[in-house]
Amino acid sequence: MGGFFGTVSKTSCVTDLFYGTDYNSHLGTKRGGLATYSQEKGFIRSIHNLESTYFRSKFEGELDKFKGNAGIGIISDTDAQPIVINSHLGRFAIVTVAKITNIQELEEELLSKNMHFAELSSSNTNQTELIALLIIQGRTFTEGIENVFKHIKGSCSMLLLTEDGSIIAARDHWGRTPIVIGKKEGAYAATSESTSFPNLDYEIDRYLGPGEIVRMHADHIEQLRKPNEEMQICSFLWVYYGFPTSCYEGKNVEEVRFTSGLKMGQKDESEVDCACGIPDSGVGMALGYAEGKGVPYHRAIAKYTPTWPRSFTPSNQELRSLVAKMKLIPNRAMLEGKRLLFCDDSIVRGTQLRDNVKILFEYGAKEVHMRIACPPLIYACPFVGFSASKNALELITRRIIKELEGDENKNLDKYATTGSPEYEKMVNVIAERFGLTSLKFNTLETLIEAIGLPKCKVCTHCFDGSSHF
User: Fold this and answer.
1) What keywords would UniProt list here (predicted)?
2) What are phi and psi of 362, to 5 degrees?
Protein backbone atom coordinates (compact mmCIF):
# COMPACT_ATOMS: atom_id res chain seq x y z
CA MET A 1 0.00 0.00 0.00
CA GLY A 2 2.29 2.79 1.24
CA GLY A 3 2.08 5.90 3.37
CA PHE A 4 3.39 9.46 3.17
CA PHE A 5 4.12 12.47 5.35
CA GLY A 6 4.72 16.11 4.43
CA THR A 7 5.27 19.20 6.50
CA VAL A 8 5.70 22.96 6.05
CA SER A 9 7.25 24.83 8.95
CA LYS A 10 8.59 28.25 9.89
CA THR A 11 11.80 26.45 10.93
CA SER A 12 13.69 23.44 9.60
CA CYS A 13 11.34 20.58 8.75
CA VAL A 14 13.94 17.80 8.56
CA THR A 15 13.46 16.17 11.97
CA ASP A 16 9.67 16.16 11.71
CA LEU A 17 9.88 14.89 8.13
CA PHE A 18 12.19 12.02 9.09
CA TYR A 19 10.17 10.76 12.04
CA GLY A 20 6.79 11.56 10.50
CA THR A 21 7.62 9.48 7.45
CA ASP A 22 9.05 6.68 9.57
CA TYR A 23 5.71 6.39 11.40
CA ASN A 24 4.26 5.14 8.09
CA SER A 25 6.65 2.18 7.96
CA HIS A 26 3.92 -0.39 8.71
CA LEU A 27 2.27 0.54 5.40
CA GLY A 28 5.12 -0.38 3.07
CA THR A 29 8.41 -2.20 2.92
CA LYS A 30 9.78 -1.78 -0.59
CA ARG A 31 11.23 1.75 -0.93
CA GLY A 32 11.55 4.91 1.08
CA GLY A 33 12.19 8.45 -0.06
CA LEU A 34 12.52 12.01 1.20
CA ALA A 35 12.60 15.38 -0.56
CA THR A 36 13.06 18.86 0.87
CA TYR A 37 13.08 22.32 -0.69
CA SER A 38 14.94 25.48 0.25
CA GLN A 39 15.62 28.63 -1.74
CA GLU A 40 19.36 28.19 -1.22
CA LYS A 41 19.68 24.51 -2.12
CA GLY A 42 16.54 23.89 -4.18
CA PHE A 43 15.21 20.33 -4.17
CA ILE A 44 17.21 17.69 -2.29
CA ARG A 45 16.03 14.12 -2.76
CA SER A 46 17.06 10.66 -1.62
CA ILE A 47 15.52 7.23 -2.30
CA HIS A 48 16.54 3.90 -0.75
CA ASN A 49 15.53 0.26 -1.09
CA LEU A 50 13.97 -1.00 2.16
CA GLU A 51 13.45 -4.66 1.30
CA SER A 52 16.30 -5.82 3.56
CA THR A 53 16.41 -3.02 6.14
CA TYR A 54 14.43 -0.28 7.85
CA PHE A 55 13.69 3.31 6.86
CA ARG A 56 15.52 4.83 9.83
CA SER A 57 18.72 2.90 9.27
CA LYS A 58 18.84 3.98 5.62
CA PHE A 59 18.17 7.69 6.12
CA GLU A 60 19.50 8.56 9.57
CA GLY A 61 23.08 8.93 8.44
CA GLU A 62 22.29 11.40 5.64
CA LEU A 63 19.81 13.73 7.34
CA ASP A 64 22.35 16.54 7.47
CA LYS A 65 22.20 16.92 3.70
CA PHE A 66 18.50 17.84 3.72
CA LYS A 67 17.76 21.55 4.00
CA GLY A 68 14.57 23.58 4.08
CA ASN A 69 11.34 24.30 5.87
CA ALA A 70 9.18 22.12 3.62
CA GLY A 71 9.51 18.44 2.73
CA ILE A 72 7.67 15.27 1.76
CA GLY A 73 8.46 11.63 2.46
CA ILE A 74 7.11 8.23 1.44
CA ILE A 75 7.24 4.58 2.48
CA SER A 76 6.22 2.81 -0.71
CA ASP A 77 5.29 -0.70 -1.76
CA THR A 78 5.47 0.29 -5.41
CA ASP A 79 7.71 2.74 -7.21
CA ALA A 80 10.82 4.71 -6.38
CA GLN A 81 9.63 8.04 -4.97
CA PRO A 82 9.67 11.04 -4.68
CA ILE A 83 10.29 12.13 -8.24
CA VAL A 84 11.11 15.73 -9.19
CA ILE A 85 9.51 17.29 -12.26
CA ASN A 86 10.31 20.51 -14.17
CA SER A 87 7.28 21.75 -16.10
CA HIS A 88 5.29 24.80 -17.16
CA LEU A 89 3.76 24.66 -13.65
CA GLY A 90 7.23 25.05 -12.20
CA ARG A 91 9.43 22.48 -10.51
CA PHE A 92 7.81 20.16 -7.98
CA ALA A 93 8.45 16.91 -6.13
CA ILE A 94 5.65 14.37 -5.84
CA VAL A 95 4.81 11.27 -3.77
CA THR A 96 1.74 9.10 -4.27
CA VAL A 97 -0.13 6.31 -2.53
CA ALA A 98 -1.75 4.82 -5.59
CA LYS A 99 -2.84 1.78 -7.51
CA ILE A 100 -3.59 2.40 -11.19
CA THR A 101 -5.23 -0.54 -12.91
CA ASN A 102 -5.39 1.11 -16.34
CA ILE A 103 -1.74 2.16 -16.35
CA GLN A 104 -0.95 0.50 -19.70
CA GLU A 105 -3.83 2.29 -21.41
CA LEU A 106 -2.74 5.64 -19.98
CA GLU A 107 0.89 4.98 -20.87
CA GLU A 108 -0.02 4.35 -24.51
CA GLU A 109 -2.19 7.48 -24.57
CA LEU A 110 0.61 9.68 -23.22
CA LEU A 111 3.21 8.20 -25.55
CA SER A 112 0.89 8.91 -28.50
CA LYS A 113 1.02 12.58 -27.44
CA ASN A 114 4.82 12.52 -27.67
CA MET A 115 5.29 12.38 -23.90
CA HIS A 116 8.10 10.23 -22.52
CA PHE A 117 8.82 8.28 -19.33
CA ALA A 118 12.23 8.64 -17.69
CA GLU A 119 11.56 6.83 -14.38
CA LEU A 120 11.24 3.06 -14.78
CA SER A 121 10.55 0.65 -11.90
CA SER A 122 11.69 -2.92 -12.62
CA SER A 123 11.44 -2.12 -16.35
CA ASN A 124 7.84 -0.93 -15.92
CA THR A 125 6.44 2.57 -15.99
CA ASN A 126 6.73 4.37 -12.67
CA GLN A 127 3.09 5.17 -11.86
CA THR A 128 4.08 8.26 -9.86
CA GLU A 129 5.74 9.68 -12.98
CA LEU A 130 2.62 8.85 -14.98
CA ILE A 131 0.54 10.75 -12.43
CA ALA A 132 2.96 13.70 -12.68
CA LEU A 133 2.59 13.72 -16.47
CA LEU A 134 -1.19 13.81 -16.14
CA ILE A 135 -0.86 16.73 -13.71
CA ILE A 136 1.26 18.86 -16.02
CA GLN A 137 -1.39 18.64 -18.72
CA GLY A 138 -3.42 21.05 -16.63
CA ARG A 139 -3.07 24.83 -16.68
CA THR A 140 -2.86 24.83 -12.88
CA PHE A 141 -1.99 22.22 -10.26
CA THR A 142 -5.66 21.94 -9.34
CA GLU A 143 -6.71 21.37 -12.94
CA GLY A 144 -3.89 18.86 -13.39
CA ILE A 145 -4.87 16.85 -10.31
CA GLU A 146 -8.47 16.83 -11.48
CA ASN A 147 -7.11 15.42 -14.74
CA VAL A 148 -5.63 12.55 -12.71
CA PHE A 149 -9.00 11.94 -11.03
CA LYS A 150 -10.68 11.92 -14.43
CA HIS A 151 -8.35 9.41 -16.09
CA ILE A 152 -7.14 6.82 -13.59
CA LYS A 153 -8.93 3.68 -12.48
CA GLY A 154 -7.95 2.53 -9.02
CA SER A 155 -6.96 5.13 -6.46
CA CYS A 156 -4.47 7.93 -5.92
CA SER A 157 -3.71 10.25 -3.02
CA MET A 158 -0.71 12.54 -3.36
CA LEU A 159 1.53 15.24 -1.92
CA LEU A 160 3.30 17.82 -4.12
CA LEU A 161 6.20 19.91 -2.82
CA THR A 162 6.36 23.09 -4.89
CA GLU A 163 9.17 25.61 -5.32
CA ASP A 164 7.29 28.33 -3.48
CA GLY A 165 7.85 26.25 -0.35
CA SER A 166 4.26 25.02 0.03
CA ILE A 167 2.79 21.52 -0.14
CA ILE A 168 -0.31 20.57 -2.10
CA ALA A 169 -2.22 17.62 -0.61
CA ALA A 170 -4.85 15.87 -2.73
CA ARG A 171 -6.91 12.95 -1.49
CA ASP A 172 -8.11 10.20 -3.79
CA HIS A 173 -11.24 11.12 -5.75
CA TRP A 174 -13.30 8.45 -3.94
CA GLY A 175 -11.41 8.86 -0.66
CA ARG A 176 -10.26 5.24 -0.73
CA THR A 177 -7.02 6.18 0.99
CA PRO A 178 -6.88 8.86 3.71
CA ILE A 179 -5.04 12.12 4.25
CA VAL A 180 -5.01 13.62 7.73
CA ILE A 181 -3.94 17.23 8.36
CA GLY A 182 -2.05 18.08 11.54
CA LYS A 183 -1.25 21.44 13.08
CA LYS A 184 1.13 22.83 15.68
CA GLU A 185 2.59 26.25 16.34
CA GLY A 186 4.42 27.36 13.23
CA ALA A 187 3.77 24.24 11.14
CA TYR A 188 1.22 22.14 9.28
CA ALA A 189 1.58 18.51 8.22
CA ALA A 190 -0.28 16.00 6.05
CA THR A 191 0.00 12.24 6.44
CA SER A 192 -1.56 8.89 5.65
CA GLU A 193 -1.40 7.95 9.35
CA SER A 194 -2.34 10.22 12.25
CA THR A 195 0.03 8.06 14.34
CA SER A 196 2.72 10.36 12.94
CA PHE A 197 1.41 13.32 14.95
CA PRO A 198 1.47 12.84 18.77
CA ASN A 199 5.22 12.52 19.36
CA LEU A 200 5.89 15.43 17.00
CA ASP A 201 3.40 17.63 18.90
CA TYR A 202 0.87 17.93 16.08
CA GLU A 203 -2.86 17.86 16.76
CA ILE A 204 -5.31 16.56 14.18
CA ASP A 205 -6.70 19.61 12.41
CA ARG A 206 -8.96 17.91 9.87
CA TYR A 207 -9.46 14.92 7.59
CA LEU A 208 -9.38 15.77 3.89
CA GLY A 209 -12.55 14.74 2.11
CA PRO A 210 -12.71 12.65 -1.09
CA GLY A 211 -11.14 14.54 -3.96
CA GLU A 212 -10.33 17.52 -1.75
CA ILE A 213 -7.20 19.51 -2.61
CA VAL A 214 -5.49 21.93 -0.22
CA ARG A 215 -2.27 23.93 -0.22
CA MET A 216 -0.38 23.99 3.08
CA HIS A 217 1.75 26.88 4.26
CA ALA A 218 3.52 27.14 7.60
CA ASP A 219 0.78 29.31 9.10
CA HIS A 220 -2.37 28.54 7.11
CA ILE A 221 -4.13 26.21 4.67
CA GLU A 222 -6.04 27.21 1.55
CA GLN A 223 -8.60 24.96 -0.08
CA LEU A 224 -8.10 24.52 -3.83
CA ARG A 225 -10.92 22.04 -4.45
CA LYS A 226 -13.94 21.18 -2.32
CA PRO A 227 -14.49 17.53 -1.34
CA ASN A 228 -16.90 15.27 -3.17
CA GLU A 229 -20.05 14.11 -1.43
CA GLU A 230 -19.56 10.42 -2.23
CA MET A 231 -16.86 8.44 -0.43
CA GLN A 232 -15.55 4.87 -0.56
CA ILE A 233 -12.89 4.72 2.14
CA CYS A 234 -11.24 1.28 2.39
CA SER A 235 -12.67 -0.73 5.30
CA PHE A 236 -9.41 -2.70 5.50
CA LEU A 237 -7.72 0.38 6.96
CA TRP A 238 -9.41 -0.49 10.24
CA VAL A 239 -9.21 -4.26 9.85
CA TYR A 240 -5.53 -4.59 8.94
CA TYR A 241 -3.51 -1.70 7.55
CA GLY A 242 -3.91 0.92 10.25
CA PHE A 243 -1.69 1.33 13.30
CA PRO A 244 -3.77 1.06 16.50
CA THR A 245 -3.38 4.73 17.45
CA SER A 246 -4.36 6.06 14.03
CA CYS A 247 -7.72 7.58 13.16
CA TYR A 248 -9.50 7.84 9.81
CA GLU A 249 -12.65 9.94 9.43
CA GLY A 250 -12.49 10.44 13.20
CA LYS A 251 -12.71 6.68 13.84
CA ASN A 252 -9.82 5.16 15.82
CA VAL A 253 -8.35 1.88 14.56
CA GLU A 254 -7.98 0.16 17.94
CA GLU A 255 -11.45 1.23 19.03
CA VAL A 256 -12.98 -0.25 15.87
CA ARG A 257 -11.08 -3.53 16.35
CA PHE A 258 -12.03 -3.69 20.03
CA THR A 259 -15.69 -2.96 19.31
CA SER A 260 -15.75 -5.54 16.53
CA GLY A 261 -14.37 -8.20 18.87
CA LEU A 262 -16.68 -7.13 21.69
CA LYS A 263 -19.75 -7.60 19.52
CA MET A 264 -18.58 -11.03 18.31
CA GLY A 265 -17.84 -12.13 21.86
CA GLN A 266 -21.26 -11.07 23.10
CA LYS A 267 -22.96 -13.23 20.45
CA ASP A 268 -20.61 -16.24 20.37
CA GLU A 269 -21.89 -19.35 22.18
CA SER A 270 -18.62 -21.32 21.96
CA GLU A 271 -17.18 -22.61 25.25
CA VAL A 272 -13.55 -21.52 25.53
CA ASP A 273 -11.02 -20.96 28.31
CA CYS A 274 -9.44 -17.77 26.99
CA ALA A 275 -9.15 -15.40 24.04
CA CYS A 276 -5.85 -14.74 22.27
CA GLY A 277 -4.84 -12.32 19.51
CA ILE A 278 -2.65 -13.12 16.52
CA PRO A 279 -0.13 -10.24 16.56
CA ASP A 280 -0.35 -7.50 15.63
CA SER A 281 -3.71 -6.62 14.11
CA GLY A 282 -5.64 -9.42 15.83
CA VAL A 283 -4.82 -8.21 19.35
CA GLY A 284 -7.32 -5.34 19.58
CA MET A 285 -10.13 -7.59 18.42
CA ALA A 286 -9.16 -10.31 20.91
CA LEU A 287 -9.17 -7.86 23.80
CA GLY A 288 -12.69 -6.82 22.81
CA TYR A 289 -13.79 -10.42 22.33
CA ALA A 290 -12.50 -11.37 25.79
CA GLU A 291 -14.52 -8.58 27.38
CA GLY A 292 -17.63 -9.40 25.39
CA LYS A 293 -17.37 -13.12 26.08
CA GLY A 294 -16.35 -12.76 29.71
CA VAL A 295 -13.17 -14.84 29.42
CA PRO A 296 -9.56 -13.84 30.16
CA TYR A 297 -7.18 -12.58 27.49
CA HIS A 298 -4.02 -14.71 27.25
CA ARG A 299 -0.94 -14.13 25.12
CA ALA A 300 -0.44 -17.65 23.81
CA ILE A 301 1.43 -16.40 20.74
CA ALA A 302 4.01 -13.60 20.85
CA LYS A 303 5.60 -11.75 17.96
CA TYR A 304 9.38 -11.57 17.87
CA THR A 305 9.62 -7.88 17.02
CA PRO A 306 13.37 -7.06 17.10
CA THR A 307 14.18 -8.35 13.63
CA TRP A 308 11.04 -9.43 11.75
CA PRO A 309 9.22 -6.85 9.63
CA ARG A 310 5.75 -7.46 8.20
CA SER A 311 5.12 -10.78 6.50
CA PHE A 312 4.65 -9.40 2.96
CA THR A 313 8.18 -7.97 2.83
CA PRO A 314 9.81 -10.53 0.50
CA SER A 315 8.58 -10.60 -3.08
CA ASN A 316 8.78 -14.41 -3.18
CA GLN A 317 5.63 -16.03 -1.73
CA GLU A 318 7.49 -19.04 -0.29
CA LEU A 319 9.93 -16.80 1.56
CA ARG A 320 7.10 -14.50 2.65
CA SER A 321 5.31 -17.49 4.18
CA LEU A 322 8.48 -18.49 6.01
CA VAL A 323 8.83 -15.00 7.47
CA ALA A 324 5.18 -15.08 8.58
CA LYS A 325 5.83 -18.35 10.42
CA MET A 326 9.18 -17.47 11.97
CA LYS A 327 8.15 -14.19 13.57
CA LEU A 328 5.27 -15.69 15.63
CA ILE A 329 6.32 -17.82 18.60
CA PRO A 330 3.80 -19.97 20.54
CA ASN A 331 3.98 -20.13 24.34
CA ARG A 332 3.43 -23.73 25.46
CA ALA A 333 2.87 -22.72 29.09
CA MET A 334 -0.09 -20.52 28.14
CA LEU A 335 -1.82 -22.91 25.74
CA GLU A 336 -1.25 -26.48 26.89
CA GLY A 337 -4.50 -28.29 27.71
CA LYS A 338 -6.67 -25.23 27.00
CA ARG A 339 -9.60 -24.47 24.74
CA LEU A 340 -8.14 -21.49 22.90
CA LEU A 341 -9.97 -18.91 20.84
CA PHE A 342 -7.78 -16.86 18.53
CA CYS A 343 -8.70 -13.62 16.80
CA ASP A 344 -7.05 -12.50 13.56
CA ASP A 345 -7.66 -9.74 11.05
CA SER A 346 -8.36 -11.83 7.96
CA ILE A 347 -7.62 -14.99 5.99
CA VAL A 348 -6.08 -14.29 2.60
CA ARG A 349 -4.18 -17.32 1.33
CA GLY A 350 -4.40 -19.35 4.53
CA THR A 351 -0.66 -20.01 4.66
CA GLN A 352 -0.07 -18.46 8.05
CA LEU A 353 -3.26 -19.93 9.52
CA ARG A 354 -2.29 -23.46 8.53
CA ASP A 355 1.13 -23.21 10.16
CA ASN A 356 -0.22 -21.56 13.32
CA VAL A 357 -2.96 -24.15 13.92
CA LYS A 358 -0.61 -27.08 13.38
CA ILE A 359 1.93 -25.91 15.92
CA LEU A 360 -0.74 -24.94 18.47
CA PHE A 361 -2.03 -28.52 18.57
CA GLU A 362 1.51 -29.86 18.63
CA TYR A 363 2.15 -27.71 21.71
CA GLY A 364 -0.80 -29.24 23.54
CA ALA A 365 -3.82 -27.04 22.80
CA LYS A 366 -7.03 -28.93 23.54
CA GLU A 367 -9.14 -26.94 21.07
CA VAL A 368 -8.34 -24.16 18.61
CA HIS A 369 -11.17 -21.83 17.63
CA MET A 370 -10.64 -18.97 15.18
CA ARG A 371 -12.58 -15.71 14.89
CA ILE A 372 -11.87 -13.36 11.99
CA ALA A 373 -12.39 -9.59 12.18
CA CYS A 374 -13.93 -9.24 8.74
CA PRO A 375 -16.13 -11.28 6.39
CA PRO A 376 -14.46 -13.76 4.01
CA LEU A 377 -12.40 -12.11 1.27
CA ILE A 378 -14.24 -13.12 -1.89
CA TYR A 379 -13.08 -10.49 -4.39
CA ALA A 380 -9.57 -9.30 -5.25
CA CYS A 381 -9.13 -5.58 -4.62
CA PRO A 382 -8.82 -3.40 -7.76
CA PHE A 383 -8.58 -0.16 -5.80
CA VAL A 384 -5.66 -0.23 -3.35
CA GLY A 385 -2.44 -2.25 -3.22
CA PHE A 386 -3.74 -4.94 -0.84
CA SER A 387 -0.96 -7.42 0.09
CA ALA A 388 0.88 -8.99 -2.82
CA SER A 389 -2.14 -10.74 -4.36
CA LYS A 390 -2.15 -10.59 -8.13
CA ASN A 391 -5.36 -12.49 -8.87
CA ALA A 392 -8.47 -13.86 -7.20
CA LEU A 393 -7.22 -17.46 -7.09
CA GLU A 394 -4.62 -16.46 -4.53
CA LEU A 395 -7.56 -16.08 -2.13
CA ILE A 396 -8.32 -19.28 -0.22
CA THR A 397 -12.05 -18.61 -0.67
CA ARG A 398 -11.85 -18.56 -4.46
CA ARG A 399 -9.77 -21.74 -4.56
CA ILE A 400 -12.40 -23.49 -2.47
CA ILE A 401 -15.22 -22.10 -4.62
CA LYS A 402 -13.44 -23.51 -7.66
CA GLU A 403 -13.20 -26.91 -5.97
CA LEU A 404 -16.88 -26.85 -5.03
CA GLU A 405 -18.30 -25.33 -8.22
CA GLY A 406 -15.70 -26.11 -10.87
CA ASP A 407 -15.51 -22.37 -11.55
CA GLU A 408 -13.96 -19.83 -9.19
CA ASN A 409 -16.38 -17.15 -10.42
CA LYS A 410 -19.63 -19.05 -9.92
CA ASN A 411 -22.25 -17.99 -7.35
CA LEU A 412 -19.96 -15.41 -5.74
CA ASP A 413 -22.91 -13.45 -4.39
CA LYS A 414 -24.16 -16.53 -2.56
CA TYR A 415 -20.74 -17.30 -1.06
CA ALA A 416 -20.51 -13.67 0.07
CA THR A 417 -23.87 -13.85 1.87
CA THR A 418 -23.47 -14.72 5.54
CA GLY A 419 -25.59 -17.72 6.51
CA SER A 420 -26.32 -18.97 3.00
CA PRO A 421 -25.75 -22.70 2.35
CA GLU A 422 -22.85 -21.82 0.05
CA TYR A 423 -21.27 -19.55 2.67
CA GLU A 424 -21.60 -22.17 5.42
CA LYS A 425 -20.09 -24.86 3.19
CA MET A 426 -17.11 -22.66 2.30
CA VAL A 427 -16.42 -21.74 5.92
CA ASN A 428 -16.69 -25.40 7.00
CA VAL A 429 -14.22 -26.46 4.31
CA ILE A 430 -11.71 -23.83 5.47
CA ALA A 431 -12.11 -24.95 9.09
CA GLU A 432 -11.67 -28.62 8.20
CA ARG A 433 -8.72 -27.95 5.91
CA PHE A 434 -6.79 -26.22 8.67
CA GLY A 435 -7.91 -28.46 11.52
CA LEU A 436 -9.82 -25.78 13.42
CA THR A 437 -12.30 -26.73 16.12
CA SER A 438 -14.52 -23.92 14.87
CA LEU A 439 -14.23 -20.93 12.53
CA LYS A 440 -16.42 -17.83 12.38
CA PHE A 441 -16.06 -14.64 10.38
CA ASN A 442 -17.37 -11.28 11.42
CA THR A 443 -20.47 -10.16 9.54
CA LEU A 444 -20.36 -7.15 7.26
CA GLU A 445 -23.08 -5.52 9.33
CA THR A 446 -21.06 -5.85 12.54
CA LEU A 447 -17.91 -4.52 10.89
CA ILE A 448 -19.73 -1.46 9.52
CA GLU A 449 -21.38 -0.88 12.89
CA ALA A 450 -17.96 -1.01 14.59
CA ILE A 451 -16.47 1.45 12.05
CA GLY A 452 -19.37 3.78 12.68
CA LEU A 453 -19.75 5.21 9.17
CA PRO A 454 -22.69 4.71 6.80
CA LYS A 455 -22.25 1.63 4.61
CA CYS A 456 -22.48 3.81 1.50
CA LYS A 457 -19.33 5.69 2.61
CA VAL A 458 -17.17 2.58 3.09
CA CYS A 459 -15.64 0.36 0.42
CA THR A 460 -16.42 -3.29 1.14
CA HIS A 461 -15.69 -4.57 -2.35
CA CYS A 462 -13.38 -7.39 -1.21
CA PHE A 463 -16.24 -8.84 0.85
CA ASP A 464 -19.29 -8.28 -1.33
CA GLY A 465 -18.09 -6.86 -4.68
CA SER A 466 -20.21 -3.77 -4.08
CA SER A 467 -17.94 -0.88 -4.97
CA HIS A 468 -17.30 0.74 -8.33
CA PHE A 469 -14.86 2.95 -10.22
Assistant:
1) Glutamine amidotransferase, Glycosyltransferase, Iron, Iron-sulfur, Magnesium, Metal-binding, Purine biosynthesis, Transferase
2) -60, -30
